[in-house]
Design a protein that fits this description.
With about 325 residues, the chain is α+β, with helices and mostly antiparallel strands. It contains eight helices and ten strands. Strands 1-4-5-8 form a four-stranded mixed sheet, with helices on one face. A four-stranded antiparallel sheet has the order 2-3-7-6, with no helix packed on it. A two-stranded antiparallel ribbon has the order 9-10.
Length: about 325
């Protein structure tokens, strides 16, 4: 289905939380790479099974020493005859626990530091590909799935796209990664808004429903306005992708959608917790979980600071490619 349909589905799934929306989107993310850059054999062997839900997938991109710096990846892929030998470590692998197939990015050209250094490979779960779970103790207990690549083999026929050509794959993958984040954020924000709005209609203080106080009702109005604006941007971006495919303008719009939708989700859930007061901080309601999920959404699939970097870069590329008018050149 097209992106106009995909974002509709993902918003509804996002109502249930970020984890389910993220797992649902993995088929679109990894499937997109295989569909656009994969060989006929890869599509027959893997893509059909992914679509039919007979094969679960995960993406291994982030490393312990690198997140936003994608091209600083330290995991290596060295070719030996008909195989690539992978060594290194990946972390924050969403879906790793039950995945049968991993899309792994690794440095295949150690002699360069440019965009021509990384390859994308499909790696089947096996003895050489080891996933372990570590519990990271911060404000809350979180699961951090890491992948170890101790001389892990991947057949050359499992290369996605060109050797050393993952930059092209990565650029395309930013569409499904960031659009799924944006659409899921809409559902998450909508859930928080509905929960706090119904609570405000039941909860009474000083002899009246708290939604009758401007301090509460204005937060509801502001949240609703932000959410409607974010949804309009995401749906317009989806329409443009369906109509035009990938381009500099699409990359800008996708980045705007991810940034604005996830920032909106964070603001809406914050206001929802404020409306609900202390009970919103407890696990009696899911607001505290939605707050943690919304905060993560502004970080994953490219931080929102990276989104701003992409937005202005693509805008200037378009702006400076056309002659300035007499009015704007002064």
């Amino acid at each position: 289905m097209g992106w106009s349909d995909e974002v509709l589905a993902l918003e509804e799934i996002g109502v249930l939380g970020a984890s389910l929306a993220c797992l649902y989107s993995l088929a679109s993310i990894v499937g997109e790479a295989i569909n656009i850059f994969g060989t006929g054999e890869q599509k027959q062997k893997y893509l059909r099974s992914i679509i039919e839900d007979r094969l679960t997938v995960a993406e291994a991109l982030t490393e312990p020493r690198g997140g936003s710096d994608f091209f600083g990846a330290m995991a290596t892929a060295r070719r030996e005859a008909d195989f690539y030998i992978l060594n290194g470590q990946k972390r924050f692998i969403v879906g790793a626990e039950g995945a049968d197939l991993f899309l792994v990015y690794a440095r295949s050209n150690p002699d360069v530091t440019s965009h021509n250094a990384i390859s994308a490979l499909l790696v089947e779960r096996g003895k050489a590909w080891k996933c372990s779970m570590s519990m990271v103790d911060g404000d809350t207990w979180r699961r951090d799935w890491s992948g170890l690549l101790p001389r892990c083999e991947s057949a050359v026929k499992n290369l996605i796209g060109k050797e050393h050509g993952a930059y092209e794959v990565f650029n395309q993958m930013m569409i499904p990664e960031r659009m799924t984040s944006a659409a899921g954020a809409l559902g998450l924000a909508r859930a928080a808004l509905e929960i706090c709005s119904r609570y405000a209609d039941r909860r009474k203080a000083f002899g009246q429903k708290i939604r009758e106080f401007e301090g509460v009702s204005f937060k509801i109005a502001e949240s609703l306005t932000r959410l409607d604006a974010a949804r309009a941007l995401v749906h317009e971006t989806a329409r443009i992708i369906d109509a035009t495919g990938n381009s500099s303008y699409v990359r800008r719009m996708v980045s705007e959608s991810k940034k604005f939708a996830t920032d909106t989700a964070w603001a809406v859930v914050n206001d929802a917790m404020q409306v609900m007061g202390g009970i919103g901080y407890t696990n009696v309601y899911p607001i505290e979980r939605l707050l943690r999920d919304a905060r993560l959404m502004t970080i994953w699939t490219g931080t929102n600071e990276i989104m701003s970097l992409v937005i202005q870069h693509e805008y200037y590329k378009q702006l400076l490619s056309t002659p300035s008018s007499a009015r704007t050149s002064r």
